[in-house]
Amino acid sequence: MLSAIFFWMFASAACFFAFGVILARNPMHSAVSLVATLIALAGLFLQLHAEFLAWILIIVYTGAVMVLIIFVISLLNLHREEPINLTLARRFGITFVGIFGFMIFVYLFTDSLTGFVYPKKLPAPEEFGSAASLAADLFTRYLLPFELASILLTAAVIGAVVIARKPCEEEEPKE
Amino acid sequence: MNLGELALYSIVKIAILFPLVMLSVAYLTWLERKLLGRFQQRLGPHRVGPFGLLQPIADGVKLFFKEDIIPTNADRILFILAPVLSMACALMAIAVIPFGPSFQLFGYDLGRVQIADVNVGLLYIFGITSLSVYGVFLAGWSSGNKYSLLGALRSSAQIFSYELTLGLSVIIPLMAVGSLKMSGIVDSQADGFWNWWILSPKWLVIPGLLGFALYLISAFAETNRIPFDLPEAETELVAGYHLEYSSMKFAMFFMAEYVNMITAASIATTLFLGGWHSPLPLAPFTWFPGWFWFAAKVFVILFFFIWVRATFPRFRYDQLMHFGWKILLPLAMLNVFLAAVGLLLAG
Amino acid sequence: MISLNHYLILSAVLFSVGALGVLLRRNALIILMSVELMLNAANLAIVAFARYPFFREVGLAAEDLAVAGNGMVFVFLVMTVAAAEVGVGLAIIINLYRQRQTINIEIANLLQG
What we know:
The complex is a heterotrimer of chains A (175), B (347) and C (113).
Chain A: H1 2-23, H2 27-47, H3 51-76, H4 88-113, H5 131-141, H6 143-164
Chain B: H1 3-39, H2 55-64, H3 76-92, E1 104-105, E2 108-109, H4 121-142, H5 146-169, H6 171-177, H7 182-187, H8 206-222, H9 234-237, H10 247-272, H11 283-286, H12 290-311, H13 317-346
Antiparallel strand pairs in B: 1-2
Chain C: H1 4-24, H2 28-51, H3 55-58, H4 65-69, H5 73-100
Helix pairs in contact in C: 1-2, 2-5
């Protein structure tokens, strides 16, 4: 009962702010909406007993990634709104996404109406979703993906620095 | 304990702790002004009440009755949201701090003086602290003032840079205890100061001391205190991110800053200084209750915060970045390594 | 009672909204944020599947929920990729702004000849 209330609360907040992200005129409002969406998602993670991931989501996404995006938004001083220019290809894409989303919705919805027995939520064991159990998986069974991810991050850091660096000034000819 | 009891107990604890925290905030401002006065060879506030003790109340009343101004250039929604966000994040972090051992009220055992003992308590605190950047940043951005914007940019870059060090510096208690629960970390430091994580692991004191020092330095940066108060540097940015705020909105930023100070000091106490445990398990020390030791340790750290404010000048911006990325962060990483080796050696 | 389907529908809705954002908007930053939204919709689906595993189909007992829970490791990897993507993406956007004084991606058409 309580979990249902929390689900609907967080789910409606996530949907509302997700639309805020793509509809807001001001990029800063989009970014703040995305932060709110992510917080709502973290709430849903908590409902799914993924405590550790919920807080990692908040720390990594809202604490680092979104701060970076907001930083760039205010650095670039973007107040002009771009005109929405719908080319034929883009209209086609939007229709496709709409149909696709609607189909998923209908499929899942009728599925639950026709009474297909979906897995029941079982009482989770104490260590489910805890830092210890995740770490045990991450550092043993999934060590290779973990190391690859760290290489990816290093590459991304170096790449970002190289790309964003001011182009080197031409050296003054020595007199 | 069923859900209803849990909710009731939590509400009782909030009802006790919230006024206490707000009162400490009010008197922390008094303490700061008084101590700064003494450090600078003057008296500090002494007109309102004995020793100026009623000064915080007078300040509060003054701020409450000031005119509330929203600039025309401001982005109204975010301008109003920002102080609320600051204050809310500052207060939320207090929820997982263990202030004292189990206590009883009217014959009911209410458990620890801790509102919620979350499984991932420490992550919770980091999550909430990382959200508090938005209060500062949105305030600066939405004011529509270039000084405010500069303050906001500085503060986000600064908090962003020092959060890494902050996260790495608390790794010793985590590695040693193997739990993110705040109560577990406190319980592991009972029976005397040699068990505190500041003197850890075992006889190798260096990782613990270094971790504590790194934590304190980055806590200064996170709370925008001197010598890291560039976001509100009066001499260059007028007042930085809260330049356009007045009345209660300004007061909320002000209070949030002090609540953040108290939180940072409480976390340092809990993680490194043994929380509410007495320094020696002997008779004269054990007479005092747990909350006394907690308050005493927090007071010492807060005194240090104020002392530093009276002593150090402000960093230059490039020095701040240089210090954060090229000195503190490598040190913090080295410390993680040292701590791991030390824990292995100590068994 | 909240079932797996509820979470999957929510995930699909968020994903579609993100995809719409990519198609609808021309501001590179908002496109980047929409992509983040899509990634997080996927994250939600992953966590939901970890919590409601198909016990009968895979033959797991209730106490093996922790085994199913290791699907959450993928959320880590998704977050890592997203963080890397944002880092590089923002660097590119800053460069674009330096060159063109705008981040409307319609303007970034040098390679179209």
